Amino acid sequence: MTAFRTVSHHGSLTVVIVGAGAMGREWMRTAHENPDVELVGVADLSEDAARSSLAEVGLAGVATGTDGVDLALALGADALIDVTIPAAHHAVTMKALNAGLPVLGEKPAAATVAEALSLAAAAEATGELFVVSQSRRYNAGLFSLRHLVGSIGRVGLVDVGFYRDPRFGGFREEMAHPLLLDMAIHPFDGARFLLGVEPVSVTCDEFNPVWSPFAGDAAAAVDFRMSDGSRFLYNASWASPGLQTSWNGEWRVSGEAGTVLWNGDDEPVSSVTSGSSVAPVPPGDSIAGSLADFVLALRTGTAPFGEVHENIMSLVMVEAAVIASERGAQVEIDEILTAAHREAIAAEKDAGAAAVLRSWTSVRDALSAGGPAPLTST
Ligand SMILES: NC(=O)c1ccc[n+]([C@@H]2O[C@H](COP(=O)([O-])OP(=O)(O)OC[C@H]3O[C@@H](n4cnc5c(N)ncnc54)[C@H](O)[C@@H]3O)[C@@H](O)[C@H]2O)c1
């Protein structure tokens, strides 16, 4: 377990947001609404975009710039929130961690598993906290589902169906694996959260309905074998007009003593009466929950959901599913981890991160052991 630096002053946690696009504006609203947080700066490659996004959200008196880390250092901010595009996550977070700034970053951790491993190593080397905001974990229904699953005995099968017909326009309609790369990380992460176990192997068949507006495959049938012998099935389409599921999908969890169903919107239902115990609730909905957890972590040293070591396996599941689909064959998760580790070592330019990466004898062990320990302050 790695300790991370906490923030000990008693004022609001001052943050800079980098990336002033659609999701950046959501983060501006969310940071503004959190009483423990003060948004002091917004950066974007286009400073005009930073200014216009702040104006659109209705926030005044917030500094702007073109480099999030430089702006945060100039303002003496406590932390950085990275809402840039995935291709920029590695460079932005690596610079921030080395500048002594903890980071709350949008999913995915980075564009590739190798880059994500580099960031986990940098977090260890610098002692700074890096959390990936996996927003759909912060859902009261998912928390209830997890609670109810506790009373159906051993789980044999988690089956998620996801059928939507969105029209995004833009990059998603041109990319190679739009459903797997942009959407599937949420239910994959949800299944890990629900089961509390990690994946071992995957088969995946991607395809594109003939009427699909997407250039890449917008549908997939994915089958993960998990470490406790259970299976996680994900059948999904982004080209499915008509009777659609919720954005969280429809969940069926089948255990040895019963079944729990969740439609992704309402309270889940169980075939087993779970007594009077009350399900825990997240500290906020969606990104408000991950921001609240990030603040708590920096104040107390308590390990949050999505700490980069804990989060990476959700990205591994995405990459493994894509490779399984391309090969038309089952892929072992350990193969993906080993290849990404090798790639990360070969590409690493940061001396501290390189030393940490080289010290890992097993990536799986490093990810499960490397998360933060409750500790320390400066
Ligand atoms: N959790 C969710 O449900 C959810 C939903 C949508 C998007 N996201 C994630 O949020 C992130 C941003 O998505 P978006 O839809 O807002 O994208 P976007 O393209 O609308 O905005 C990204 C912004 O980042 C800026 N940018 C890129 N590189 C930068 C850099 N190095 N420094 C400063 N600014 C930089 C761009 O100029 C752009 O303004 C992505 O990682 C995406 O996966 C998450």
**The CATH top-level class label of the largest domain:** Alpha Beta
Strand content: 15-25%
Helix content: 25-40%
> In the CATH hierarchy, what is the architecture of the largest domain at level 2?
3-Layer(aba) Sandwich
Number of strands: 16
CATH-assigned fold name of the largest domain: Rossmann fold
* Unreliable runs: 372-378
Q: What sequence of helices (H) and strands (E) makes up the elements?
A: EEHEHEHEHEHEHEHHEEEEEEHHEHHHE
Please give the radius of gyration in angstroms: 20 Å
The tally of helices reads 13
Termini separation: 19 Å
Q: How would a textbook summarize the main sheet?
A: 8 strands, mixed
How does the overall form come out from the CA principal axes? globular
Specify the CATH homologous superfamily of the largest domain: NAD(P)-binding Rossmann-like Domain
Give the tally of structural domains: 2
The helix-and-strand class reads alpha/beta
Mean pLDDT, nearest integer? 95
Present as ligands are: nicotinamide-adenine-dinucleotide
